[in-house]
Amino acid sequence: MILPAPNDVAFYLLSVPVYWYGIVMAIAIFIAICLANHFFNKVNPHLKKDIIIEYSPLIILMGIFCARLYFCVLNFNYYFSNPIEILDFRQGGLSIHGAIIGGIAAMYIISHKTKVPLMNITDALACTTALGQAIGRWGNYFNSEAYGFPVKSQNWGVFIPYGKRICEFSNFSLFHPTFLYESILDFSAFLILVFLLFKFGKKYTGITFFSYLTLYSIIRYFVEKIRVDSALNIGTLPIAQIVSILLLFIGISGILFVIYTKRKDRV
Q1: Partners of 18 in the β-ladder
Q2: Does residue 164 contact residue 28 with C-beta atoms inside 8 Å?
Q3: Range list of H helices, the chain
Q4: DSSP assignment letter at 17
Q5: How confident is the model at residue 21 (pLDDT cuts 50, 70, 90)?
Q6: To which H or E segment does residue 9 belong?
Q7: Which residues are registered as beta bridge partners of 9?
Q8: 3-class SS of residue 60
Q9: Handedness of CA 204, 99, 166, 159 (dihedral sign)
Q10: Which is more confidently placed, 249 or 88?
Q11: What DSSP assignment string belongs to 89-120?
């Protein structure tokens, strides 16, 4: 059994609570940005150096803003009734699909301003985004969220406090730790993407980015089948699965396009 999460407040700073969720997310973002900058410099020595560090405030702000906006839109009824809570990032409520949209928008702006090819930037950041997600999922652990269906075994599962349980499962205490499943799978995806970036990144620019979309979409689609706290369902499908299917299509199409274009250029 996974031990119950400790208090979600790590410490107090001048009587203001600092949450574990925020600390974990800050660590995840810091590592992802620094490593992406390192990867970009290594794979693209002919391009402007340290571009990701230079524009990291834009990437981070747009990623967080869009992640929060996307989450609030999915939970429109609640936030429409409680608009002031839209600004309460400390309690969680960030969507990775929103962050992906915001990150891509930020990278487009960076590419336009610096004249650095967009795909060279996205390859490096997509690679380390998977690592950031693997780390960031532990923020869900401290918030006792992003868990799955109840487990029957008493030897496996994560304890969810009564107040954090979905109403229909309030009589259960142990649940599938889907945050952990996704964290492990995201880290595995990161290792695959690192291999792709350094093996094929120079020759097939863009293939790492589209592979990230493909891998993460598969991961999220199947993990979402186990989760019980999906933000919004359309029919019988959670919106996260629908978006994952769309991104999977874009990812596979992008991979095929990159390979086809490169081979066509060689003919």
Answers
A1: 11
A2: no
A3: 20-43, 51-54, 56-74, 76-81, 96-114, 118-143, 178-200, 207-224, 239-266
A4: E
A5: confident
A6: strand 9-13
A7: 19
A8: helix
A9: positive
A10: 249
A11: GGG----HHHHHHHHHHHHHHHHHHH---HHH
Helix (H, G, I), strand (E, B) or coil at 202: coil
User: Which residues are 193's β-sheet partners?
Assistant: none
Q: Please report, for the chain, the start and end positions of each structural domain, with discontinuous segments joined by +.
A: 9-266
CA distance 263 to 267: 7
Give the closest residue to 40 by CA, choosing from 211, 261, 202.
Answer: 202
d(CA 54, CA 22): 23
State the pTM of this model.
0.90
Rounded CA gap, 124 and 149, in Å? 35
> What is the longest distance spanned by two Cα atoms in the chain?
67
CB 50 within 8 A of CB 215: no
Give 39-46's long-range contacts (Cβ < 8 A, gap of 24+): 39/124, 39/127, 39/128, 39/194, 39/197, 40/120, 40/121, 40/124, 40/125, 42/198, 43/120, 43/123, 43/124, 43/197, 43/198, 43/201, 43/202, 44/120, 44/124, 44/202
φ/ψ (deg, to 5) at 237: -100, 130
In the chain, pLDDT over 70 holds for what percent of residues? 95
* Sign of the alpha-carbon dihedral angle for 221, 33, 49, 97: positive
Q: What is the per-residue pLDDT across 137-174, written as a single tens digit (0 to 9) for each?
A: 998 898 888 889 999 877 788 888 888 888 888 888 89
